[in-house]
TrEMBL record:
<dbReference type="GO" id="GO:0017004">
    <property type="term" value="P:cytochrome complex assembly"/>
</dbReference>
<feature type="domain" description="ResB-like">
    <location>
        <begin position="51"/>
        <end position="531"/>
    </location>
</feature>
<feature type="compositionally biased region" description="Polar residues">
    <location>
        <begin position="1"/>
        <end position="10"/>
    </location>
</feature>
<keyword id="KW-0472">Membrane</keyword>
<dbReference type="InterPro" id="IPR023494">
    <property type="entry name" value="Cyt_c_bgen_Ccs1/CcsB/ResB"/>
</dbReference>
<feature type="transmembrane region" description="Helical">
    <location>
        <begin position="199"/>
        <end position="218"/>
    </location>
</feature>
<feature type="compositionally biased region" description="Acidic residues">
    <location>
        <begin position="555"/>
        <end position="565"/>
    </location>
</feature>
<feature type="transmembrane region" description="Helical">
    <location>
        <begin position="107"/>
        <end position="129"/>
    </location>
</feature>
<dbReference type="Pfam" id="PF05140">
    <property type="entry name" value="ResB"/>
</dbReference>
<protein>
    <submittedName>
        <fullName>Cytochrome C biogenesis protein</fullName>
    </submittedName>
</protein>
<keyword id="KW-0201">Cytochrome c-type biogenesis</keyword>
<feature type="region of interest" description="Disordered">
    <location>
        <begin position="537"/>
        <end position="565"/>
    </location>
</feature>
<dbReference type="GO" id="GO:0016020">
    <property type="term" value="C:membrane"/>
</dbReference>
<feature type="transmembrane region" description="Helical">
    <location>
        <begin position="476"/>
        <end position="495"/>
    </location>
</feature>
<keyword id="KW-1133">Transmembrane helix</keyword>
<feature type="transmembrane region" description="Helical">
    <location>
        <begin position="53"/>
        <end position="71"/>
    </location>
</feature>
<feature type="region of interest" description="Disordered">
    <location>
        <begin position="1"/>
        <end position="24"/>
    </location>
</feature>
Amino acid sequence: MSKTETTGQQDHLGEAGAQLSTAPREETVIGGPTLGPFGWVRWFWRQLTSMRVALILLFMLSLGSIPGSLIPQTSADEVKVRAFKEAHETLTPIYEKLQLFDVYSSVWFSAIYILLFVSLIGCIVPRTWQFVGQLRSRPPGAPKRLTRLPAYTTWRTEAEPERVREAALAMLKGRRYRAHTVGDAVAAEKGYLREAGNLVFHIALIVMLVAFAWGVMFKSEGGKLIVEGDGFSNTLTQYDDFKSGSQFGTDELEPFGFTLDSFTGTYEKSGPQRGTPRTFEAAVRYSEVGKPEKKAIIRVNEPLKVGDAKVFLIAHGYAPVVTVKDGRGKVVYHGAVPLLPFDNNVTSTGAIKVMDGYRDKNGKKEQLGFNAFFVPTFAGAGKGQMFSQFPALDFPVMAVTGYHGDLRVNSGLPQNVYQLDTSKMKQFKVQGGTGSANRLLPGETMTLPDGAGSITFEKEIKEWASFSITQQPGNGLALAGAVAAILGLSGSLFIQRRRVWVRAVRGEDGVTVVEMAGLGRSESAKLPEELAELAVTLNTEAPTAPEPSERTAEAAEEPAEGAEK
């Protein structure tokens, strides 16, 4: 039903057709006076708080979030943003002007967000008061001409009008209609909770917007790489990287710690899914302040929950154990070195840095650095390169390239712990391998030239796991809002608001005339069916009277039968 038809219907039905919706009626003034400043403000407010503009803003918000999903965001990963800028020098200035690297904190996204928030509130508040008024009121009386309603039926009955109205009132109340008698008719209404679902849906949208803003302002997220046997304490200095909202304080970090006991990863060994992880879990021991230590298993999408914090397992790799000795045989470095994977078969690279304790053959203090290239299952022999053909530790090999000099760790500039700065270093030339790098099996040692020492690839290879520790206070509120939005939308879509009137009056011939009619918010195929069902039920209490010709024939037959008897 179009807006014009609906308006016309309400005009000729009067109060009976009004207030079937809490949506404000749009008034158009043609040829009216010019709007003044206050009139323009009022017009703008009405446009902003209309449902049409709210839907447009919601659509714009969803469109605005697309660049945030496709383009690296500074708040999520600065390294990826830097790499994107280096790879796209032409697009970078345009993206920076449009704030596409910080979509969710940009001016234009915030403007859409705030306008949508104001629009929803301005739309919901008046409709809520109007809906409350409708709940407190009773269904309006029947129109003068029920024949104009989209669903209509009538019949004549010998039952008294009062008896018909009483039966109709009891029947409608029994079917959960709000019903009462107004004059010569019974007025009933059902499905008024449709508007409640509509309001719940829009209120839920506001709740979700508030939850999103709350989560952005008070959230915290940090990452930590932990080798088997090492631990973590939830303090700011323990994080490898940390980001938080503008209103988050470091004293709000959940006080707890955990130790990575072991990481277990198993993989499909054959078939088209060869190398696909089957088991991917970390066994940890965690403790809270004043509570005994507990054990837990962290899996993908199964985080460890401690208070308001969640610990997610996001990545893993290998940490070969190496030992570095100087020319006199003194151990200057021993430990597991985490290496970063760059393919699905966990081919990894990293750096080994000996910053203190090393002296060359002349006793001069110097620093050592090694580039390490590790494969858990070696392949590529005789082809001039090495790569991994399976992610498990079936045939581990590590290639090492050594340097000596100044690591530049004291230069005051930030440095990647997984990369070497060789600008102030010289490369060792070693025997075997390629002359600059040697491939080592577990337990093998590479001797550095000129009595500079050695590096040993120990037989022990540890695994590491990378964790994301987050505190997102608005998640529960956002989930509640999403559930409420679904329920409210379902109610507004599937509940049909309709009104039914039953009029019973005595006709000129003394026989009661019963009229039943129904009206809904829009054309509905179910309304005539429902009215027909109600009419059949009421007809059992007020059966159809015979036609006048039939009554005359019956009256004429009665004396003849008496005379015959």
